[in-house]
Write a structure and sequence with these properties.
The chain has 13 helices and 9 strands. With 247 residues, it is an alpha/beta fold. Helix 4 links the parallel strand 2 and strand 3. The relative contact order is 0.16.
Length: 247
């Protein structure tokens, strides 16, 4: 069973595409005539020129909008596509879920004619800059230590890629890991945590002490004193990166 068959049942409620992040992704895709989305989930950030989505979880496929691109149930490591099938291939916040990332990246290179766009994150920067995992939930960060690929290695596998920081707006509508950096109460909501794979897969039992400490700090005002600089910021960089490879 794919992990998203379990944690993805309510995904679309908290994981709505953010228009600012969408604009950056679409700009990176450039003038590609057709796009394949690998690890597509429910279809977030797919441009209208998307011709096919690849997704291993039927639960996620079932949540795709009726007008979304057709989806095929398959894995990144074995794409059911011919060589050079599309101008561009994108893979957004998905590489860390692949059982064999090296094989998956090789498949992206095989299928793309001109460009590959990958959204991922720098785990060391994320650990250092994001208050939630640094100060309250180090268990969640530890869960990602093994599966988060180092960016230089990923860029090398892509055959060379430029790296673009992806700043996270304070009112980000896509509820991934750091989306609520200025809305800390959200992390106490089980529904929100269910849409964040690092929290959902770590599990509430392991997170309970840190969540209790966060709730206490919010109730006493200590959180707001501790992070008094955050309300003045419109966005932050906590390590999310867009890798763009020109083939």
């Amino acid at each position: 069973m794919n992990i998203y068959d379990t944690i993805g049942t309510s995904y679309v409620r908290t994981r709505r595409p953010d228009p600012r992040i969408a604009a950056q992704i679409h700009a990176a895709l450039g003038d590609a005539a057709d796009v394949v989305n690998v690890g597509a989930g429910s279809g977030s950030y797919e441009p209208p020129r998307t011709v096919l989505a690849i997704e291993p979880s039927q639960v996620m496929i079932d949540q795709r909008p009726p007008d979304a691109a057709p989806a095929v149930r398959a894995v990144a490591e074995r794409l059911p596509l011919r060589d050079g099938a599309a101008d561009a291939v994108m893979a957004l916040l998905t590489v860390h879920h692949w059982t064999d990332p090296e094989a998956g990246i090789a498949e992206l290179r095989r299928v793309a004619r001109r460009r590959i766009v990958v959204l991922t994150w720098d785990q060391e920067v994320f650990r250092e800059r994001f208050w939630l995992v640094r100060d309250y939930l180090p268990e969640a960060a530890a869960f990602d230590d093994d599966r988060a690929m180092k960016l230089d290695h990923l860029a090398e596998l892509l055959g060379g890629a430029r790296q673009e920081p992806v700043p996270i707006p304070h009112d980000c509508t896509d509820g991934f890991g750091a989306a609520y950096w200025r809305r800390p109460e959200a992390y106490l909501d089980p529904g929100v945590r269910a849409g964040i794979s690092m929290l959902a897969q770590t599990g509430d039992a392991a997170l309970a002490p840190g969540l209790a400490a966060l709730e206490a700090d919010l109730n006493t005002g200590r959180w707001h004193d501790r992070y008094a600089d955050l309300p003045a910021l419109d966005s932050i960089d906590v390590g999310y990166r867009l890798l763009v490879a020109e083939l």
